[in-house]
Amino acid sequence: MRDPWHAWRAQTAPGDFVERTVAAIARDRVARARTRRRRAAVLAMAAALVIAVGALGWAALPRSALTPRASTTMTLGASPRVEAIGARPARPSTPVEAPPGSSRPVEPPVATGFPPAPHRKTDVPIPSSGPPPSRAAPARLPRCSCVRGICDCGEEP
Amino acid sequence: MAVAAARCVARVDADPAEVDASILDGCRAGDPVALTAFVSRYQHRVFGFLSRTLGAGPHVEDLAQEVFLRACRALPGFDATGSARPSTWLLTIARRLVIDARRKPRPALAAVDVDHAPAPETPETERRRIEIGRAIERAASQLPDDQRDVFVLAEFHDVDQREIASILGVPENTVKTRLFRARERLRALLRGVWEDM
User: Fold this and answer.
1) How many domains does one find in chain B?
2) Are B39 and B90 contained in the same domain?
3) With an 8 Å Cβ cutoff, is A24 touching chain B?
4) B99 and B128 together in one domain
5) Cβ of A154: how many Cβ atoms within 10 Å?
6) How confident is the model over B128-179, as pLDDT tens digits?
7) What global pTM score does this model have?
8) Burial A44-62 (b: 16+ CB within 10 A, else e)
9) How many other C-beta atoms are found inside a 10 Å radius of the C-beta of residue B107?
10) Mean pLDDT for chain A?
11) Which of B69, B72, B197 faces A4 most closely, judged by CB atoms?
12) In contact, B97 and A50? CB cutoff 8 Å
C-alpha cells in the first residue's frame, strides 16, 4: 500500500447535497436581503421620529426661553443694575406705600417729557451683611418711564 | 484593477483544483449555476475535513452546509488576489465550525460509515484496506484535537505547513511540532497494523 493513511476514508456527501445547499444559500440570501430592508426601514423611521420630535419641541419652545432672562439677573444682586442716565431720579429702593390714615393714592411716576435716555450698566456691590428682606415687605413697584403721556408700564400718567 | 484581475484569473486558473474567478464572481452575484459549481468542487474536501476531525455522522452534513452558507455570506470580502486559495479559505471556515462543534456537548452517535462497510463480494485487498482505515480512525480519535487537525490537513488536503499555520492561526513551527508528534503517536498506536502494511 503506497499511502497507508488514505485507507482512512472520509464520509462522502449525499447525492442531493449540492442541490439542497444551493437552495439553502438562495433562501439565506433572500432572508438576509429582507432583514437588511427591514432594518433600513426601522432606522429611517427612527431617524424621522427623532427629527419630528426635535422640530415639535423647537416649535413649542417659548420665545422668552430663547432670550436671556433679564428679570432673573436683576434680582440676584451680583449682576449689574441698569440705570438711566440723565433721566428723572430713580425711585427709592424702599417701597412706596400710602400713609396708614391717608386716602391719597400713591403718586404716579412723573412724566419727564424727554425720550428715554440710554442705559448703562453699573456694578452693584454684593451686600455682604445685613438682614435678609422680610417676607412682610410690600412688593416693589416696577419702574415706569412715560413719554408724552404714554407709559411703558401701562399706567396712566 | 485590470492587472489585479488578470493576476487573480491566472493564479486561480493555474490550480485546476480551485474554481476560477468567474465562478467566484457568479457566487457573489447569487448565480445558481456558479453556486452549484462552487459547492460541487469543494464538497468532498469539506466533508473529508469535517468527518475526519469530528467523526462521521449526520452532523457532518449539517456542518458542511453551514460552511458553504458562511462562505457565501463572506464571499464579497474574500480577496481572490490574496495569498489564500479558496479551498484554504473554506477550510478556515470549516475549522472554526469544528471548534464550535467541539465545545457543544454532542449526543453519542452511531457511526455512519458507508465507505468502510464491506461489499458482499470484497476482494482481500479491499478488506485489508478497510481494516487499516478503521485502525487509523481509532488511533486518530486518540490524538489531541490540535494534533488531529494538523494531521488531517497535512495528510489529506495537500495543504503546506504555511497554509496550515494560516488556517489554524498558529506559528509555522507549532504546526511542525504538532505534525511530528501526531505522526509519532499514530505510528506508536498503529505499530501492529503498520508492520503489515
Assistant:
1) 2
2) yes
3) yes
4) no
5) 8
6) 888 888 888 889 999 999 999 999 999 998 888 999 999 999 999 999 999 9
7) 0.62
8) eeeeeeeeeeeeeeeeeee
9) 5
10) 72
11) B197
12) no
